[in-house]
Amino acid sequence: MLSVFRTPLSKKRCRGLASGGRTNGRGNNGQNARSGGHLPHGFEGGQTPFHLTVPKRGHHNPYQQHPTLVNLERVQHLIDTGRLDAEKPITMFHLRKAGIDIKDGVKILGRVLQTDYIDCREQRIFRVK
């Protein structure tokens, strides 16, 4: 019964005719039939590979950070459910403890008018129109 769940093992080559036979599944002759005969990925027979003909574009900043976007509606929901205390200032530590996954800081977005005062002490706070 366990053999139903087991993944099939690959055939062992060079063990007689039943396991692939004379050429071991490599075809009759040619470069790929030889040992070590496979070419690297992207090789185009001596022609300049495509990825080298395309010009480099733009700039890559290795130090760029991607802050977690948190809407004020979500903060208000966390306060309403009791996972955040509105009496204390809300920091990244409190948001992480409430279950928000934070990697590179927090950007708090505000779309609606809040009826309650929320004291957020974070890196970036934006008002979205």
TrEMBL record:
The reply to whether Protease figures as a keyword in the UniProt entry is no
Please list the coiled coil stretches. Answer: none
User: Where is the stretch described as Disordered?
Assistant: 1-64
Mind telling me which InterPro entries this protein's record contains? Ribosomal_uL15/eL18, Ribosomal_uL15/eL18_sf, Ribosomal_uL15_bac-type
> What biological process terms from GO does the record include?
translation
Q: Where is the sequence biased in composition, kind Gly residues?
A: 18-28
Q: Name one Pfam family in it.
A: Ribosomal_L27A
Question: What is a single cellular component term in the Gene Ontology annotation?
Answer: mitochondrial large ribosomal subunit
- Name all Large ribosomal subunit protein uL15/eL18 domain ranges: 70-111
Gene Ontology molecular function: structural constituent of ribosome
Query: Which keywords accompany this UniProt record?
Result: Ribonucleoprotein, Ribosomal protein
What the entry lists under NCBIfam families is as follows: rplO_bact
| PANTHER family recorded | 50S RIBOSOMAL PROTEIN L15 (PTHR12934), LARGE RIBOSOMAL SUBUNIT PROTEIN UL15M (PTHR12934:SF11)
Family that this chain belongs to: Belongs to the universal ribosomal protein uL15 family.
Quote the protein name from its UniProt record: 50S ribosomal protein L15
